């Protein structure tokens, strides 16, 4: 099976899309937040950075994620009393609507961790698994599915 790194390399060659993030920038963020990103997430950032067409319908751009999504998600979780749902070390990888909807990875779940989705507002009103679930068993599966959907249906 092709690695995520290879898949993203082929993606970039095919679509000429993706502005990589320098390793030094990734290292800086890890130091700033006192975290270590999983290997596949680092590979993703190094390959696509702030521009990856299959995820253009949600906010995933690293600049936005590191600046506001982490802060907004934590504030929203606190406001709605849902901090207890989150693992100790997590990183929001994408968000929607001011981080009222987030996708995140648990940084303690290996080099290719699951992707979880949480609609904070809806879950606070109606705690149902529909609003909070493991969406993919691996981050690489999340990216592969985004590519598959993009190639089948496209987005503008």
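^ structure tokens above, recovered residues below v
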């Amino acid at each position: 099976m092709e690695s995520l790194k290879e898949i993203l390399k082929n993606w970039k060659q095919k679509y000429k899309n993706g502005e990589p993030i320098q390793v030094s920038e990734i290292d800086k963020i890890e130091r700033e937040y006192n975290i270590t990103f999983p290997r596949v997430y680092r590979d993703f950032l190094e390959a696509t950075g702030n521009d990856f067409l299959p995820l253009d319908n949600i906010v995933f751009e690293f600049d936005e994620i590191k600046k506001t999504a982490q802060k907004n998600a934590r504030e929203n979780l606190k406001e709605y009393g849902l901090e207890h749902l989150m693992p100790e070390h997590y990183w929001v990888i994408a968000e929607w609507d001011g981080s009222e909807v987030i996708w995140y990875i648990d940084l303690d779940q290996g080099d290719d961790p699951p992707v979880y989705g949480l609609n904070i507002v809806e879950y606070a009103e109606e705690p149902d698994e529909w609003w909070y679930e493991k969406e993919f068993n691996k981050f690489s599966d999340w990216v592969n599915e985004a590519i598959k959907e993009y190639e089948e249906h496209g987005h503008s």
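The mean pLDDT is 86.
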